[in-house]
Amino acid sequence: MSLTIALYGITRDIVGAATIELPAPAPTTVGELLAEMRRQYPALGELRSCAVAVNQEYAPTDQPLHPVDEIALIPPVAGG
Amino acid sequence: MTRHLTITDQPIDVAAALAAVQTEAAGAVNAFVGTVRNQSGGRAVRRLHYESYDSMALTQLGHVVAQAHEKWPMLQAVAVVHRKGTLALGDVAVVVAVATPHRAESFAACQYIIDTLKQVVTIWKREEYEDGTEWVAAHP
Q1: Stretch (H or E) spanning B15
Q2: ipTM of the complex
């Protein structure tokens, strides 16, 4: 299975695109996804934090990922 | 409790947000208005760009307001309007307005909502200076 990851803020600048496709065999958990993204884009590891959202909710590292999920990287937010 | 949660690329109408929470059951309306400041960390700011993951931002904002309602069950109405896109100095970036029967809870609930919004709502701010731009809070 492959996964599509949406990118916002500084993560979009680091990757250079608004979405990235991870082809099969794609990471199966949030933790694996973060590790894979940091491997491909080391600058992600320099951020204050980088969370993963699954279906618009903050996801713990052991949460499984599915191709139908809406997945996004969430760099430090700064609203308000 | 009524809720009005909006993310918009249009200028924010503060009076409309206040009107949205007004109800005869509430004797107190409290509002926080966040505006674009001309400096940040000692650097002169020229303008701001807010980017939003709208659907998640509204989902998370809904959680924040639900938490506030749990803490202050007397909450009658909440309006939150957040701007996105390019903002000039002095522009209104965010309005939080709450209505409660008495004033003490209106201050507390309003502060809780704006403080928690800043921690969880998926909106990002890029500041533009004379000599470049920076995503706020991105790096340690």
Answers
A1: helix B14-21
A2: 0.96
How many distinct structural domains can be found in chain B?
1
Residue B77 belongs to some domain of the structure: yes
Q: Which of residues 18-57 of B touch A (CB under 8 A)?
A: 34, 50-53, 55-57
Q: Is residue B140 part of a domain?
A: no
**Preferred mutation among B6, B61, B124 to probe A, highest tally of A CBs within 10 A:** B124
Q: Once rounded to an integer, what is the mean pLDDT over residues B96-117?
A: 98
- What CATH number did the domain enclosing B86 receive? 3.90.1170.40
User: Which percentage of chain A shows pLDDT scores above 90?
Assistant: 99
User: Which residues contact residue B109 at a Cβ distance below 8 angstroms, ignoring those fewer than 6 apart?
Assistant: B30, B68, B71, B72, B75, B78, B98, B100
A74 interfacial to chain B (CB closer than 8 Å): yes
Is the Cβ–Cβ distance between B46 and B128 less than 8 Å? yes
Whether B6 has its CB under 8 Å from any CB of chain A: the answer is: no
Average per-residue pLDDT for chain B: 97
Judged against a pLDDT cut of 90, whether residue B91 lies above it is answered with yes
Q: Provide the domain count of chain A.
A: 1
CATH code for position A24: 3.10.20.30
